Amino acid sequence: MLGAPFGIETVCATNPQAARVDELQIDLGEGPSWDAYTRRSPVFAPNLTELSAPAWPMLLAALSADAVGALYAFPLAVGSLEIGAIGMYSEVPGELTPAQVSDALALADLAAVQVLKRAMTSHELDAQFVPGEKEYSRRVEHQATGMVLAQLNVSAADAHVIIRAHAYAHDRSVRETANAIVERRLDLSSPNVEI
């Protein structure tokens, strides 16, 4: 899910590499999933090594050592409601066939309805939230943002940017950095900031 009113989080991932690709896109604010979400159309990068003018320089740099040869993304929408995107990767470069694109679009439509139902049910059950139940929840980022806001006396938007910048500068995910802040292993107001 990539935006209002649902928030930004990974709903599920098929394996750790898929989760990493998705988390990097969320952390960096760029990638094919963002483009598919904003354009409401599929985005294909069938060969990451042959992109002439890369649209996602930070994402490609972060994935340079990973076994990712291609990225594909399909928008999730129900009517006029934009929900997010399904991101897929391939370890080797390659185009999707027309049949694969057609199947992916049909599955994205089905997934969009299910994600919408889950988001609505989850929203209703927020009062019963148990940490760890939502593996990809971004709640810890919101908590960390509040803590950094208090530590540095900055706006919430600036606090979130500072967290993202610190994560990027230390080659960590925003989730790892936020966890370190919430667990009080990292205090960004300290002159010797380290995780």
UniProtKB/TrEMBL annotation:
The keyword Transcription applies. Keywords: Transcription, Transcription regulation. Transmembrane segments: none annotated. Residues 112-182 form the ANTAR domain. The keyword Electron transport does not apply. InterPro entries: ANTAR, GAF-like_dom_sf, WH-like_DNA-bd_sf. SMART domains: ANTAR. This is ANTAR domain-containing protein. It comes from Leifsonia kafniensis.
